[in-house]
Design a protein that fits this description.
Length: about 450
């Protein structure tokens, strides 16, 4: 079965514009036809009214009474002649009988016999029932004067004018069509280039994606595609780097575990060496377990809804437990932690307590890793939100690392797996909060957390 290729967007736009232009011109032509015809008829009637006024004035001066008209004849005995040869006149008396019909070649009294058929036709015109003529009535001393002219002459003029207008419209429509082709090509060209860049993304050639300069919404989409490609390229790079680092980190403890296990099995280690080997095996196993646990948790936070169980959590209790959990590490490294949240009213957060505690432990332990002597935890209520700031007196965060600090697989100089802060961000965002990183004015890193709190 043959599959028809879809019509290109440029052809769809041009076809739609062409059809729309034809419809607009057709409707415009029909409207102009009736408007122009109505205008010409109105103008013709105004001319006929002016002419009837002149003829009425002439009739007041000259009038020849009629007598001896037979029943089947109408005596035309009055020189009523319009100045325009395309206009005819009918003069009737007060009883409705036709007195005369004009134009005449000579302005003099005449007697012309008119058959009953012709009289009926003239009567139909006089009554305004013949749609082929334009009529105007004027009351005179002798009766009623009716001027009439054929509609065909007005239609001829209207058709000539309409033909010229249609030619002008056709030329304008053609110019608009050509202009639309130019504009469409200008608009479609960035889309075609954007499609090529998306093809590169599809083929995972993120580094080859270039920025397409365009205006309006297309420019916004082009920038989003370019930023997305950069993010994917960075993610791809750090992911490869992570797997390289992870394989190295996994390989080293696995070699230690395997080496000490084989040595103990084969009797290479004796006495205290056996115990030391078992300790190393336990430590390396715990390190592997932690790495696997972090990767599994992050994957669950991204994909599973039911892994997060919300409840009301007291912020002060959460911060107190965080400090207590990290106190042995603080004592070991000789770091003093300053907590400032005692005067704050009780704040309840809607969160998964265990996971939010883990996020706080990740943030504060990260500060412990880089702090020299002091760590500060400050909590307050600001604009209806609970704001927590964790700062240290360490070297701070490198500027080139700040935009990517909470991305997975990103770690600093002395970092571990690069998953701790990524896990913290995932947990805090699932709590409806926001986490940001920066450097203090006096040096050192500052991690800010914001939560919608219930006081």
């Amino acid at each position: 079965m043959e599959v028809r290729k879809p019509m290109k967007l440029v052809h769809q736009i041009n076809l739609a514009f062409g059809i729309g232009l034809v419809l607009v011109l057709a409707v415009t032509g029909i409207v102009i036809h009736y408007v122009l015809l109505d205008h010409l008829i109105g103008a013709q009637k105004e001319d006929m009214k002016a002419m009837s006024a002149e003829m009425t004035a002439s009739l007041k001066k000259e009038f020849i009474p009629m007598s001896g008209i037979a029943a089947n004849e109408i005596s035309l005995a009055m020189p009523v002649t319009p100045s325009n040869s395309s206009i005819s006149a009918i003069l009737t008396d007060n009883t409705g009988s036709i007195i005369t019909v004009a134009p005449f070649k000579k302005v003099e009294p005449l007697t012309i016999a008119v058959t009953s058929t012709e009289a009926a036709s003239v009567q139909k015109i006089r009554d305004g029932n013949d749609k082929n003529y334009i009529t105007v009535d004027k009351v005179t001393p002798q009766g009623k004067l009716t001027l009439y002219t054929p509609m065909s002459k007005v239609r001829t003029i209207e058709q000539a004018l309409l033909k010229q207008l249609l030619i002008v419209f056709g030329a304008a429509g053609l110019a608009m069509l050509l202009f639309s082709l130019f504009i469409t090509k200008k608009l479609i060209k960035p889309l075609i280039r954007l499609r090529d860049e998306l093809t590169k993304v599809k083929e995972r050639r993120f580094a080859d994606v270039t920025f397409i300069k365009a205006g309006g919404e297309i420019g916004s989409v082009a920038k989003s595609v370019y930023d997305m490609a950069g993010e994917l390229n960075r993610f791809n790079h750090v992911q490869k780097q992570f797997f390289q680092n992870a394989s190295h980190e996994l390989k080293t403890p696995l070699m230690s575990i395997s080496g000490y296990a084989e040595g103990i099995r084969d009797g290479v280690f004796e006495g205290e060496s056996v115990r030391k080997g078992l300790d190393i095996i336990m430590n390396e196993s715990a390190r592997l377990k932690k790495l696997v646990t972090e990767m599994t948790l992050l994957a669950k936070l991204d994909s599973e809804e039911d892994v997060f169980k919300s409840e009301e959590v007291c912020l002060q209790d959460l911060l107190t437990e965080t400090v207590e959990r990290l106190n042995p590490l603080l004592v070991k490294k000789g770091i003093t932690l300053h907590a400032e949240y005692g005067d704050m009213p009780t704040v309840m957060l809607c969160a998964d307590r265990d996971k939010l505690l883990q996020a706080m432990l990740n943030v504060v332990s990260n500060a412990v890793r880089y702090a020299r002597h002091h760590i500060y935890i400050h909590a307050e209520i600001r604009e209806g939100q609970a704001v927590i700031r964790v700062s240290d007196d360490g070297p701070g965060i490198p500027e080139d690392l700040l935009p990517y600090l909470f991305h997975r697989f990103v770690k600093g100089k002395d970092g571990e797996s690069g998953l701790g802060l990524a896990i913290s961000r995932a947990i805090i965002e699932r709590c409806g909060g926001l986490i940001q990183a920066g450097n203090g004015s006096g040096g050192g890193a500052v991690i800010s957390l914001q939560f919608p709190g219930i006081t």
